[in-house]
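Structure in, sequence out. Go:
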């Protein structure tokens, strides 16, 4: 689901199914950190296949979001998918269980959020630090049920909306917050008529530099012309041609243990 940061426009589209994987660079001029937030999950298989073909390890942030299958992304029906990502060595973090979007700091040390899913979906609710921690940790608890493995100790606030108080809540819960770089905003939740895929791709390839964290969603309900089928393969290939390497946030200087 969507990030609330300004658009980062980009170009060329290639079929992911037909494009061969580029050879990994002999040396790295920089490292790019691809990250994927759950969403409609319409692009889940394409993303997994593309990363596997390029031998890339990325980072996923999970919330329990409704998918195009009619289920939810942390239902048992997704167990095999997440087990496969663990086996491939990807990093997995929390995106809060109900995709709770921060609205403002509230009274008595609480925060006001609007959940995207769950019993309070669409309604502003106040959460204490312990209650927000539960939102982060519920993803870990469900992930253990699905895969037998714990999450990495990282989380991403839905829509990227935070405050110092919210970040402190995550830290107190034992999780480091991972946003994304300004140049790494893929724009995949923006209107495809106003921000065509080729424009978004061109901007990413022009602006990304070593060390940047890229935000991509695993499917967006509102975007008519889905971003990933047109752009993920050429983005990776274009960065490889610039001798960029890829890594999970486990290797990022800010998140290394």
């Amino acid at each position: 689901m969507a990030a609330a940061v300004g658009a980062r426009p980009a170009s060329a589209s290639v079929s992911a199914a037909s494009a061969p994987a580029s050879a990994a660079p002999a040396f790295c001029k920089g490292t790019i950190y691809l990250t994927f937030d759950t969403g409609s999950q319409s692009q889940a298989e394409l993303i997994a296949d593309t990363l596997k073909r390029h031998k890339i390890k990325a980072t996923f942030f999970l919330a329990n979001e409704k998918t195009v299958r009619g289920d939810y992304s942390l239902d048992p029906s997704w167990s095999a998918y997440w087990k496969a990502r663990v086996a491939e060595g990807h990093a997995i973090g929390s995106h809060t269980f109900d995709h709770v979007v921060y609205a403002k700091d509230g009274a008595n040390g609480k925060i006001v959020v609007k959940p995207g899913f769950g019993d309070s979906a669409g309604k502003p609710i106040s959460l204490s630090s312990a209650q927000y921690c539960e939102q982060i940790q519920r993803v870990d608890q469900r992930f253990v049920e699905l895969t037998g493995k714990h999450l990495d100790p990282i989380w991403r606030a839905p829509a990227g909306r935070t405050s110092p108080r919210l970040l402190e809540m995550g830290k107190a819960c034992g999780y480091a917050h991972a946003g994304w770089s300004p140049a790494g905003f893929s724009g995949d939740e923006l209107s495809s008529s106003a921000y065509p895929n080729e424009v978004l791709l061109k901007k990413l390839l022009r602006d990304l530099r070593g060390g940047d964290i890229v935000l991509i969603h695993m499917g967006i309900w509102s975007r008519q012309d889905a971003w990933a089928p047109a752009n993920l393969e050429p983005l990776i290939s274009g960065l490889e041609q610039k001798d960029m390497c890829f890594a999970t946030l486990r290797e990022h200087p800010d998140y290394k243990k």
